[in-house]
Design a protein that fits this description.
This protein has about 290 residues and is mainly alpha-helical. The chain folds into three domains: about 10-135, Four Helix Bundle (Hemerythrin (Met), subunit A) (Up-down Bundle); about 145-200 and about 210-215, Arc Repressor Mutant, subunit A (Orthogonal Bundle); about 230-290, PhyR, sigma-like (SL) domain (Butyryl-CoA Dehydrogenase, subunit A, domain 3). The chain has 13 helices and two strands; from the N terminus they run E-E-H-H-H-H-H-H-H-H-H-H-H-H-H. It has helices at about 35-50, 60-70, 70-80, 85-105, 115-135, 145-165, 170-175, 180-190, 215, 225-240, 245-255, 260-265, 270-290, and strands at about 10, 25-30. A two-stranded antiparallel sheet has the order 1-2. Pfam families: Sigma70_r2 (PF04542), Sigma70_r3 (PF04539), Sigma70_r4 (PF04545). GO terms for molecular function: DNA binding; sigma factor activity. This is RNA polymerase sigma factor.
C-alpha cells in the first residue's frame, strides 16, 4: 500500500506511464489549489523529473502541465500591476502572462540555483508588456472609437471584395447605418492605433551624406508633457478618495481656497485642514510613484 502524503490533494499513487520516469511523481488532482509554499517545494521535484523525462510522453506532459497549473498564481500576482488597464483586458493579460510562465518553465534548470518564482516573474511581466506594446493604441481614444475602428476595418475589407475597389465614406456609412461624420471620425481615430517613428527618413537625397528624419523637423520636448502624464495618473487616484477628501482637494486646488476658508466651510480649524491636506498629498504622491 503506497504511503500517502500529508497534503489532502496529493497522492503517491504511481502514474500509468512509469517507465519514462526514474522516480514516480505524486498525483496531484487539483494543482491550482496547492498553496504557494507547497508549490515551491513540489516544483523542485517536478523540475528534477522534467529534465530526465522524454519530451512528448504522458509522464512529461503530466509533469509540465502540473508545473503550469501550480504556478498560475504567479501570473495573477504579476497581472495585478496592470489592473488599471481596464477589466476588459484582464483576461487577455492573464492569457499572455501564462505564455510567459510556460516559457519560464521550459527554460528553467535547477542548476541555476535560483528560486523558480524569481526566474519566472521577469518572463511573465515581459510577455505582458510585449502584449501592450504590440496591441494597444499609440494614443488614447474613446472606447467607442476603438470599437468603431475594428468595425470599419472589417466592413472595408468586405466591401472591397464585393466592389473590387476601396469603398467610399458614403458607402461605409450606408452599410453600417451611420452618418458620414461618424465614419470620418472613426477613420481619423484609427490613425492613433500606431505611431510612426521619428527616425523615419524623409526626402532623402541620394547624393547627400546626411539623412533628414521626421525627428529633425517635427516639434521639440513639450515642457508640459510631464504635467499631462501626472494628471492622467492622478485622475483614478482621486476617484479612490472618499467624498470629503475629494471636496477638500477640489476646494484647495480647484477653487484655490485658503486653508482658513476651507476650515470655515467644513466647520473645522485651519490646523485640522492643514493636517488633512498634508496626509492626503502624502498618500497621493506615494500612490502616483507606485502607479508609474
Amino acid at each position: 500500500m503506497p504511503t500517502r502524503t500529508q497534503h489532502p490533494q496529493l497522492s503517491t499513487t504511481p502514474r500509468h506511464d512509469t517507465s519514462a520516469a526514474p522516480t514516480a511523481l505524486p498525483r496531484i488532482d487539483a494543482p491550482g489549489e496547492i498553496a504557494p509554499k507547497d508549490a515551491r517545494k513540489l516544483a523542485v521535484l517536478f523540475f528534477d523529473q522534467l529534465q530526465v523525462l522524454e519530451e512528448g510522453t504522458h509522464a512529461y506532459q503530466y509533469a509540465r502541465n502540473t508545473l503550469i497549473e501550480m504556478n498560475l498564481s504567479l501570473v495573477h500576482f504579476a497581472a495585478k500591476r496592470f489592473r488599471n488597464r481596464g477589466s476588459g483586458e484582464m483576461e487577455d493579460i492573464i492569457q499572455v502572462g501564462t505564455i510567459g510562465l510556460i516559457k519560464a518553465i521550459d527554460r528553467f534548470e535547477l542548476s541555476r540555483e535560483v528560486e523558480f518564482t524569481s526566474f519566472a516573474i521577469p518572463y511573465i511581466v515581459g510577455e505582458i508588456k510585449r502584449f501592450f506594446r504590440d496591441s494597444t493604441w499609440a494614443v488614447h481614444v474613446p472606447r467607442r472609437l476603438q470599437e468603431l475602428r475594428v468595425t470599419l476595418a472589417k466592413t472595408r475589407e468586405a466591401l472591397s471584395t464585393r466592389l473590387d475597389r476601396e469603398p467610399t465614406v458614403a458607402e461605409l456609412a450606408h452599410h453600417l447605418e451611420l452618418t458620414e461624420e461618424e465614419v470620418i471620425e472613426g477613420l481619423i481615430a484609427a490613425n492613433g492605433y500606431t505611431a510612426g517613428s521619428l527616425d523615419l527618413p524623409i526626402g532623402a537625397d541620394q547624393n547627400s551624406a546626411e539623412t533628414v528624419t521626421y525627428g529633425d523637423i517635427k516639434g521639440d520636448v513639450d515642457p508640459a508633457m510631464e504635467l499631462v502624464e501626472d494628471l492622467h495618473t492622478l485622475a483614478p487616484l482621486l476617484e479612490r478618495l472618499d467624498e470629503r477628501e475629494r471636496e477638500i482637494v477640489a476646494m484647495r486646488f480647484g477653487r484655490e481656497m485658503t486653508q482658513a476658508q476651507i476650515g470655515e466651510h467644513l466647520g473645522i480649524s485651519q490646523m485640522h485642514v492643514s493636517r488633512l491636506l498634508s496626509r492626503l498629498l502624502t498618500k497621493l504622491r506615494k500612490d502616483m510613484l507606485t502607479e508609474k
